[in-house]
Amino acid sequence: MSTARRPLLVGALTAAIVALVASAAVAVGVIGGPSSGPLGVRGGAGPGGHGFVSGSPRAATKLPGTVVNVSLMSMGGSMMGGQGNGMMGDGAMGLSADHAAVPHGTVSFLVTNDGSIDHEMVVLPLDGSRTAGARSAGGDGKIDEVGSLGEASKTGGAGAGYGISPGASGWVTVTLAPGHYELVCNLPRHYSAGMYTQLNVT
Fold it and tell me: What count of other Cβ atoms lies within 10 Å of the Cβ of residue 73?
């Protein structure tokens, strides 16, 4: 091969490698697409099925105030009636937060669905001596949301939607006064299956 053609061949090979790496990055979701969250990072479960691993810490840097990472879980068992109609029994689902207490003011919740069915997260005040998990569900399997301060129920977006799909994230930013709050999933029967936790605001 002549030395004059060698630089052209090396240039073409380099361009092909760059194109291959870029297409692989898009395929695995490193570069944002239509379902990307903040910073163009897709939500989703990472190694071990924990949604905070895949993009969440970087996404959280774009949210205002104190950021609370919330994980929504379905821990197995049979589901009857389709998504949102949990018939799994007490304790078969869970909702956990990486903060038990936060300072008052702006609080952002980055909510990741680590379960196998749709979930959501609603912020409710806890009045008086009421504790998390003590609300009564109605005939529809849901608790009363009167006084709700906001919810994350939109797949790949902020605020209210139709539920966060498995492996995806949603988020909401609220202003919280000092007091006690309950974070819940209020899809039918999910609260009674264990999807609640308490958050204290100082």
Answer: 22
Could you read off the pLDDT of 51-97 as tens digits, one per residue?
343 334 445 458 999 999 999 998 654 333 333 333 344 458 999 99
CATH T-level assignment (fold) for domain 35-201: Immunoglobulin-like (2.60.40)
* pLDDT tens, position by position, 11-23: 555 555 544 444 4
Give the bridge partners for 96, in sequence order.
71
Locate 23 and state its tokens: 């297409």
Structure tokens at 177: 């006064």
Residue 142 to residues 60, 136, 152, 184, 188: CA-CA distances in angstroms?
Answer: 29, 8, 16, 10, 5
Residues ≥6 apart with Cβ < 8 Å to 177? 104, 201
- 184's CB contacts (< 8 A; 6+ apart) are 95, 121, 122, 124, 135, 143, 191, 195, 196
Please state the domain extents for the chain: 1-31, 35-201
Query: pLDDT at residue 36 above 80?
Result: no
